[in-house]
Specification:
Length: 114
């Protein structure tokens, strides 16, 4: 293939650039997902330690609070971790978190003294 201008590129080079851009975007999304998953796991650990919940119940509490408050799951997880570190938890999240823990205990029949 003969090119008539330095600014023109072959179709193969254009395709390669598009694939590279797509792969870079996917890589960034995967990195974000891994970081978010780690924060959720840490928050589940906080709930396990603080409220004696199972890991499944801890995830359920996070998911329930997220859905009831319309706050992203990773943001709820960050708030739970922050609370464990002594940071302020917004009132709406604190109320929903406490209620979700209580509902979880009722469903599973577990609690602090069980």
């Amino acid at each position: 293939m003969v090119m008539t201008s330095r600014t023109q590129r072959s179709l193969a080079e254009t395709d390669r650039d598009a694939v590279l851009a797509r792969l870079e975007q996917e890589n960034a999304q995967l990195r974000q997902a891994v970081a978010s998953h780690a924060r959720v796991d840490q928050a589940i650990g906080v709930l396990i330690a603080a409220h004696k919940l199972s890991s499944a119940a801890g995830f359920g509490v996070l998911r329930e609070v997220s859905q009831r408050t319309n706050v992203k799951l990773h943001a709820v997880a960050d708030a739970v971790i922050g609370r464990a570190l002594g940071r302020h938890l917004p009132q709406v999240l604190a109320m929903e978190l406490d209620a979700a823990v209580a509902r979880s205990r009722e469903r599973t029949g577990t609690g602090w003294w069980s």
